[in-house]
Amino acid sequence: MKCPFCKGDNTQVVDTRESEEGDSIRRRRRCQSCNKRFTTFETVELRMPQVVKQNGMRSEFDAAKLRTSFSRALHKRPVPTELVDAAIDHVTQKIFALGEREVGSRQIGEMVMKELLKLDKVAYIRFASVYKSFQDVGDFTEAVEAVSKPLVRRVAGRNGKRTA
C-alpha cells in the first residue's frame, strides 16, 4: 500500500479491526518513510454479470434500474418498503447466484415478475403490460385470468364432484 502523503511503498500495518457487521476490515497504517499514519478499508467486491439486452447490446448491471422498475409497478400500492427491498435483494442475489458472466434482460424481467406477483397482483399486471408489450384488452384479460387462477376455489357441484 502506497502512502497517500509521500507516495512511499513501505508501509506497516499498526492495527487491524473487523467492522461490527463483519463485511469490512479497517487497517491503521504507518509510513516507514514519513512516519505519518492513515487508514485503509478492505471490503469484498462482487462483480455482477453484464446484462444482455434484446438488441444484443451489453451494459453493466444497475440495481438502481431494478429499483425503478419495482417503484413504477408499485406506485401508490400498499406494499411496505421492507418487502420491496427484500424482493430487490432476492432478485439481485438470484442474478449473482447464477454465476454467469452475462445474463439476459428477459431473464431479469421474469425474476422481477415473479417477485411482483408475490407482492401485489396489480403491480404485476402493470409491469407485465409494459414488459410483454400488451397490444389490446385481450392481453390484459389473459394476464388477469392468469393471476386469478390460483385464487379460484374449487367447490363441490350438485353431483358431489369438485368443479372449478
How would you describe this protein?
There is one protein chain. With 164 residues, the chain is of the alpha+beta class. The protein folds into two domains: 11-43; 50-149. It is 40% helix and 22% strand. The protein contains five helices and eight strands, in the order E-E-E-E-E-H-H-E-H-H-H-E-E. Strands 1-2-3 form a three-stranded antiparallel sheet, with no helix packed on it. Strands 5-4-6 form a three-stranded mixed sheet. The chain has a two-stranded antiparallel ribbon with strand order 7-8. Helix 1 (63-73) packs across helix 4 (121-131) and helix 2 (81-97) runs antiparallel to helix 3. The longest helix has 17 residues, at 81-97. The chain starts with 10 loop residues before the first strand and ends with a strand. The model is unreliable at 151-160 (pLDDT under 50).
**What structural class results from the helix and strand content?**
alpha+beta
Q: What is the number of beta strands? A: 8
Shape: elongated
Q: How much strand content do the residues show?
A: 15-25%
Number of helices, counting only DSSP H or I runs of 4 residues or more: 5
Radius of gyration: 25 Å
Order of helices and strands: EEEEEHHEHHHEE
What's the number of structural domains?
2
- As residue ranges, the low-confidence spans are 151-160
Rounded average pLDDT: 86
Across the major sheet, the strand order is 1-2-3
The helix content is 40-55%
Biggest sheet overview: 3 strands, antiparallel
For the record, give the distance between the C-alpha atoms at the N and C termini, rounded to a whole number.
69 Å
